[in-house]
């Protein structure tokens, strides 16, 4: 999704801005741009191609300066076109970039038109640029405070003025923005990753903050208009993590990193104790009588899997809701529920809003399972478990999902223990299985050549159906999501028992049906569902394991997973589905890491 970088320095900052944009590319974007203060004027360059192309343009134009802002745009208002790309200018005096959505842009546009402003783009952002110019008092910091009061919606902005050459002003409400502290130079960005290699001294701005960025100082005013000091945190540079290494795509790299990611996520867990979720965890876990999971996308599917675990193992009633639905629904709040948000980025707008909605309804027992230790989600929840997947660049989530599952299984065991449902023997046995997961996943990854052979057949199809039952129904959903996201094949998943209530009508020889078929208590039921598919000529692609007694025959293709893994089996079964999606997309020649229209971190509604 959109990314922001800004800088005020005593050296040419073009390389820092461009490098920052490159580091934000993984979030997904469709155009990009940079603006600089050059000899008393505003200069800019914009492109609907990649940041590498923008870099060439900037070099050819010798665009250099000490003060500037840059942006990657993911279109919401107005098509992905150069004239809609940020930075937006107003009357040659104000340059501005924006993440988020301004909801009252139509009203403001009318007012500004009446005041004589002409609009070059269809964006909501240009409205803010003109508003800042319209209200400009000669002091940009003061002006941005005035302007943001008139904005309804979500935003992070960075803005500078032709008339104040050594100043960039930032503001946030609903979208993340951070300040990077340098030596006689300061930076702004939507994500600390953008500044990796430039500075690791980071200030996380809070809701409603407006920041004045100058070379020697930063000055922050909070939502109440009071000057505030915010803590400077040292963050780890992620430089190495975003190198591609020997892999062809980040998604492939991230699939193969899963044994390491799971091992890191479980590192230091010698026994089950509530403390791993935070100091206050025991008290909270004792009090709660149910769990409410809120998440989006792939994270929602890990939540669905956790429901099966939490109810079966911990005996705790669990509801799972899509965050964008929950936030607007009249629900019945339960102050004794544990609200669990699951998020790779910790910045997904709908999940954050759902969390705040739950809190506003009196639900204060909050926990997040998150991959970004410094994210808003972690800051706003009482408890947290940080998955250590490392930076995930591929838009289609892989290692973030499997590490979420590992963390959610730990949560299950912990709640089971607190509720008196986990014997020492069971705890030891589960922990042993968890420690073996990295080796078990490595063995599954070795199936890649067989999956490549299947992918060739899938690449020629336009539809696919995924079936699973019980714990593996969410895994079927995740497999279908992976395939549609990156190969653009229409894929849907069903709990296999529902097949006869609709999707069976779609089954012909043209329909590949992927079946997640571990040898669990549902296997015989699942086999009957598979017969229903074969009887209609559907071609089955089955991921079996252990003693499932499913063998390859006409119209039935089987890949056997090395071992059956009991309750943890979803963590293994998702891996071949990730590989199937990856190789199918590769065979179709799509942009695997940056699928069309999608973004990595969805910071707008
Ligand atoms: C986007 C990403 C998905 C992700 C979802 C939720 O749609 O493309 O991969 O699952 O957002 O993101 P989160 O960071 O909250 O897990």
UniProtKB/TrEMBL annotation:
<keyword id="KW-0032">Aminotransferase</keyword>
<dbReference type="GO" id="GO:0004360">
    <property type="term" value="F:glutamine-fructose-6-phosphate transaminase (isomerizing) activity"/>
</dbReference>
<dbReference type="GO" id="GO:0006002">
    <property type="term" value="P:fructose 6-phosphate metabolic process"/>
</dbReference>
<dbReference type="GO" id="GO:0006487">
    <property type="term" value="P:protein N-linked glycosylation"/>
</dbReference>
<comment type="function">
    <text>Catalyzes the first step in hexosamine metabolism, converting fructose-6P into glucosamine-6P using glutamine as a nitrogen source.</text>
</comment>
<dbReference type="InterPro" id="IPR035490">
    <property type="entry name" value="GlmS/FrlB_SIS"/>
</dbReference>
<dbReference type="GO" id="GO:0005829">
    <property type="term" value="C:cytosol"/>
</dbReference>
<keyword id="KW-0315">Glutamine amidotransferase</keyword>
<dbReference type="Pfam" id="PF13522">
    <property type="entry name" value="GATase_6"/>
</dbReference>
<feature type="active site" description="For Fru-6P isomerization activity">
    <location>
        <position position="600"/>
    </location>
</feature>
<dbReference type="InterPro" id="IPR029055">
    <property type="entry name" value="Ntn_hydrolases_N"/>
</dbReference>
<dbReference type="InterPro" id="IPR005855">
    <property type="entry name" value="GFAT"/>
</dbReference>
<dbReference type="GO" id="GO:0005975">
    <property type="term" value="P:carbohydrate metabolic process"/>
</dbReference>
<feature type="domain" description="SIS">
    <location>
        <begin position="281"/>
        <end position="421"/>
    </location>
</feature>
<feature type="domain" description="SIS">
    <location>
        <begin position="454"/>
        <end position="595"/>
    </location>
</feature>
<keyword id="KW-0808">Transferase</keyword>
<dbReference type="Pfam" id="PF01380">
    <property type="entry name" value="SIS"/>
</dbReference>
<dbReference type="GO" id="GO:0046349">
    <property type="term" value="P:amino sugar biosynthetic process"/>
</dbReference>
<dbReference type="InterPro" id="IPR047084">
    <property type="entry name" value="GFAT_N"/>
</dbReference>
<dbReference type="GO" id="GO:0006047">
    <property type="term" value="P:UDP-N-acetylglucosamine metabolic process"/>
</dbReference>
<dbReference type="InterPro" id="IPR035466">
    <property type="entry name" value="GlmS/AgaS_SIS"/>
</dbReference>
<comment type="subunit">
    <text>Homodimer.</text>
</comment>
<dbReference type="InterPro" id="IPR046348">
    <property type="entry name" value="SIS_dom_sf"/>
</dbReference>
<dbReference type="InterPro" id="IPR017932">
    <property type="entry name" value="GATase_2_dom"/>
</dbReference>
<dbReference type="InterPro" id="IPR001347">
    <property type="entry name" value="SIS_dom"/>
</dbReference>
<protein>
    <recommendedName>
        <fullName>Glutamine--fructose-6-phosphate aminotransferase [isomerizing]</fullName>
        <ecNumber>2.6.1.16</ecNumber>
    </recommendedName>
</protein>
<keyword id="KW-0963">Cytoplasm</keyword>
<dbReference type="GO" id="GO:0097367">
    <property type="term" value="F:carbohydrate derivative binding"/>
</dbReference>
<feature type="domain" description="Glutamine amidotransferase type-2">
    <location>
        <begin position="2"/>
        <end position="216"/>
    </location>
</feature>
<feature type="active site" description="Nucleophile; for GATase activity">
    <location>
        <position position="2"/>
    </location>
</feature>
<keyword id="KW-0677">Repeat</keyword>
């Amino acid at each position: 999704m959109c990314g922001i970088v800004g800088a005020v320095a005593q050296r040419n900052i073009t390389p820092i801005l461009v490098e920052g944009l490159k580091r934000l590319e993984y979030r997904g974007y469709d155009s990009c741009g940079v603006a600089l203060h050059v000899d008393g004027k505003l200069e800019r360059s914009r492109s609907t191609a990649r940041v590498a192309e923008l870099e060439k343009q900037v070099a050819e134009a010798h665009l250099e300066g000490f003060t500037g802002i840059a942006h990657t745009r993911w279109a919401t208002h107005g098509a992905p076109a150069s004239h809609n790309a940020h930075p937006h200018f107003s009357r040659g005096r104000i340059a501005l970039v924006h993440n988020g959505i301004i909801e009252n842009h139509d009203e403001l546009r009318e007012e500004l038109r009446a005041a004589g402003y002409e609009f070059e783009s269809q964006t909501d952002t240009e409205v803010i640029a003109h508003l800042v110019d319209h209200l400009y008092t000669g002091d940009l910091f003061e002006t941005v405070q005035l302007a943001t009061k008139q904005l309804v919606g979500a935003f992070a902005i960075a803005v500078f003025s032709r008339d104040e050459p050594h100043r960039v002003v930032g503001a946030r409400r609903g979208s993340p923005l951070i300040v990077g502290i340098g030596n006689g130079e300061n930076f702004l960005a939507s994500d600390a990753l953008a500044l990796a290699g430039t500075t690791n001294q980071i200030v996380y701005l809070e809701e409603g903050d407006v920041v004045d960025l100058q070379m020697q100082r930063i000055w922050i005013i909070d939502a109440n208009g009071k000057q505030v000091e915010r803590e400077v945190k040292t963050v780890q540079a992620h430089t190495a993590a975003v190198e591609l290494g020997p892999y062809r795509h980040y998604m492939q790299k991230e699939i193969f990193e899963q044994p390491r990611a799971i091992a890191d996520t479980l590192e230091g867990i010698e026994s089950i104790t509530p403390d791993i979720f935070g100091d206050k965890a025991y008290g909270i876990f004792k009090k709660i009588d149910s769990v409410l999971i809120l998440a989006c996308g792939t994270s929602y599917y890990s939540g669905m899997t956790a429901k099966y675990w939490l109810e079966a193992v911990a005996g705790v009633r669990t509801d799972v809701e899509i965050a964008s639905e929950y936030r607007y629904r009249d629900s019945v709040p339960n102050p004794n529920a544990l609200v669990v948000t699951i998020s790779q980025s910790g910045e997904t707008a709908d999940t954050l809003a759902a969390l705040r909605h739950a809190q506003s309804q009196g639900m204060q027992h909050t926990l997040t399972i998150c991959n970004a230790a410094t994210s808003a989600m972690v800051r706003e929840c009482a408890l947290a478990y940080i998955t250590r997947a490392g930076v995930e660049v591929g838009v289609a989530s892989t290692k973030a999902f499997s590490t979420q599952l590992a963390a959610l299984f730990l949560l299950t065991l912990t709640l089971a223990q607190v509720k008196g449902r986990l014997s020492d023997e069971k705890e030891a046995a589960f922990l042993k299985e968890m420690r073996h997961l990295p080796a078990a996943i490595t063995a599954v990854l070795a199936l890649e050549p067989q999956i490549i052979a299947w992918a060739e057949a899938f690449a020629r199809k336009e539809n696919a159906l995924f079936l699973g039952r019980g714990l593996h129904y969410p895994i079927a959903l995740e497999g279908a999501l992976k395939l549609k996201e990156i190969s653009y094949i229409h894929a849907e998943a069903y709990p296999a028992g529902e097949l006869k209530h609709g999707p069976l009508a779609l089954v012909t020889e043209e329909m590949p049906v992927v079946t997640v078929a571990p040898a669990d208590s549902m296997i015989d039921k699942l086999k009957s569902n598979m017969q229903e598919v074969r009887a209609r000529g559907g071609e089955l692609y089955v991921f079996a394991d252990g003693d499932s007694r499913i063998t390859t025959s006409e119209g039935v293709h089987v890949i056997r997973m090395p071992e059956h893994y009991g309750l943890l089996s979803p963590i293994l079964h998702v891996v071949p589905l990730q590989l199937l999606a990856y190789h199918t997309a590769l065979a179709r020649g799509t942009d695997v890491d940056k699928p069309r229209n999608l973004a990595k971190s969805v910071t707008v509604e």
